[in-house]
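Quick one: structure for this chain?
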Amino acid sequence: MASSPKKSRPAAIIVRIVITLALLGGAGWGGFVLWKKFGPGLFGTKREAKIPTSRVKAANIAEEIVAVGRLRAVFSTELRAEINGRIMKIFVADGATVKRDQDVLKLDQQDILTQMQEADRNIEASKLKVGRAKREYDRQLDLKGRGLVTLKDFEETRTALSLAENEASVYESRSANLKDKLAKTIIRAPHDGTLLLRDLTEGQLVTSAASQNGGTLLGEVADLSALMVRTNINEIDVARLKVGDLARVRVDSLRNMMLNGEIKRIATIASESAGDRTRVFPVDVVVDETDPRLRPGMSATVMFTLAHVENVTAVPLSAVFSNADSVRYVFIKKGETFEVRGIDIGIADTRRVQILSGLVNEDEVALMRPLEFEGEIPMAKPAPPPVARGKRRPEL
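Got it. Here's what it folds into:
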């Protein structure tokens, strides 16, 4: 007799469950293998990274302070008008050589000339009044001497004469003031030099130097035979400089030109930097040489050399680390691993740092902190440097 379908159903279910469990077990094991191989690298818990290294080598190092500034004439004078006005005539072209008191430009004079004519008429009228008052005073004085005039009438005559004379003085003062304003409509060179005009046009309105914003800057007269660079040095570095120190100046637009210079002035009071509001001190470096291509306003880079050593043991800056107690150390390669070693350093430039003790030439140091380093970081000054191969440490 055939078996019932109901009896074969539990066996089929059991078979399905076994197959499903087998598939899930295989998938789980495969996932575990993949996770073990790639998972740590995906989330950064463990990376197999190659640490870049560098050999300790001899090098020349110069410790420098680098600053930027602009070229300017050592001796120059700004040109500003002393009165408000409109430019009527420009006599000298920009860049021309001028002599002391040479006319540079002229402002409109018409309004002042009109006022001067009026002042002259007022002066003439006041002189007539003074003459009439003087004659009346002389007549009253004669009558007073003969007792034919009262004291009150005589005093009124004398007062009228004083008022007429005072009025004449006022008009003469106004006339002198207008003559002075007329002279100020001519802008002249204050000394010999090269004229450096701003972008001016005839008919342009200018304001006087007495105005709130300091007036319109017309230009300057500069002696281009002596140039300097004014730069700002922060309060930490300025203490390491002094007047008379030498410097090198590179004009940015003339890359192949390197000029020698000397510090002539260090400001005694700090100013505030416009960029980051730090305290800086203006420093003037006078350039020893001149060149026809140099122009005031050109950007320049100034380099002050503080110290210089040659053929010393050195490593890249990125190889040197420091702890909270300012103890410097490096990671030196030993086979496939790294060990930490304390060092003493000297001067540094923008690329390398001098090693005073702790390393010898051809040692290999890490340029970044090894990711899995578990050793202790030195908390004290380094021990004496190891003895180089082929040499013996001197006996104490």
